[in-house]
């Protein structure tokens, strides 16, 4: 399997509860390497641009407000099949459906405040990484 990079976000509900280390441990235990990471405060407009694919969804406004409500940790995870592996470690979007042991089963508060985001495909991973990181910040 090819080595991939994927964009991960530790969301405000998780940074607020001081869960960054516990979530990072889940990634590292799964063999994902954190090759870039920074804690930032998004504006609602920056969150809106990132999630523009969801602009027509009824929850879009709430999602953008939530993502800008407190700091997030944006990170690049690297590993074999990293995109799928990260999605496996995160669990289903709705924590009620997330498998035992996954980040969302353990930490997420609701479908909206679900602790983490992860890219869903190679094209979106490349776009999402470039949204937050310059080439100089990716040291591998
Ligand atoms: P994420 O993986 O970041 O991608 C889009 C986000 O929209 C998703 O996680 C959820 O946080 C949010 N989302 C999806 N469905 C709903 C919903 N029904 N209500 C509120 N937020 C949602």
UniProtKB/TrEMBL annotation:
Binding of ATP, residues: 11, 59, 87, 93, 104, 114
Keywords: ATP-binding, Cytoplasm, Kinase, Magnesium, Metal-binding, Nucleotide metabolism, Nucleotide-binding, Phosphoprotein, Transferase
Keyword Nuclease on entry: no
All copies of domain Nucleoside diphosphate kinase-like, residue ranges: 3-140
CDD domains: NDPk_I
Domain of life: Bacteria
SMART domains the UniProt entry points to: NDK
Enzyme class: transferase
GO-annotated cellular components: cytoplasm
Location of the active site: 117
Residues spanning the membrane: none
Compartments (UniProt record): Cytoplasm
Cofactor(s) it depends on: Mg(2+)
Function (record text): Major role in the synthesis of nucleoside triphosphates other than ATP. The ATP gamma phosphate is transferred to the NDP beta phosphate via a ping-pong mechanism, using a phosphorylated active-site intermediate.
Protein name, UniProt field: Nucleoside diphosphate kinase
Species this chain originates from: Alloyangia pacifica
